[in-house]
Design brief:
about 0% strand, mainly alpha, about 65% helix
Length: about 110
């Protein structure tokens, strides 16, 4: 009876050790796959940061005032003379439906 009890106790301990080892291997593999995904995501983030910086540099290059004036001049786009500008005052308490809402004509 003692020998059967001893064998079953040893068998339970061995099975527990096997289960714990399997759980540890599974957890290690899971952490390994997460770290590989993190590496890929960090590489993508770095590439996107470089692309963003390149686009910001391109935008600032395109928005240089001299360049815009030069392109506008070649296209025949010149500023209108001041004589062609007019200031329009809206009637009192009229609300404009455009971009600017005027509540009281001031």
């Amino acid at each position: 009876m003692k020998q059967i009890m001893f064998k079953s106790t040893v068998l339970a301990i061995v099975l527990e050790i096997i289960l714990l080892a399997g759980a540890q291997v599974g957890a290690h593999n899971w952490l390994l796959s997460l770290s590989m995904k993190e590496k890929v995501l960090l590489e993508q983030q770095q590439e996107l940061c470089w692309e963003r910086n390149d686009l910001i540099a391109e935008i600032s290059e395109l928005l240089i005032l001299d360049r815009l004036e030069n392109i506008g001049g070649r296209l025949g786009l010149i500023p209108l003379p001041l004589e062609r500008h007019a200031i329009i005052r809206l009637p009192h308490n009229r609300i404009d439906t455009g971009d600017v809402n005027v509540a009281n004509g001031n």
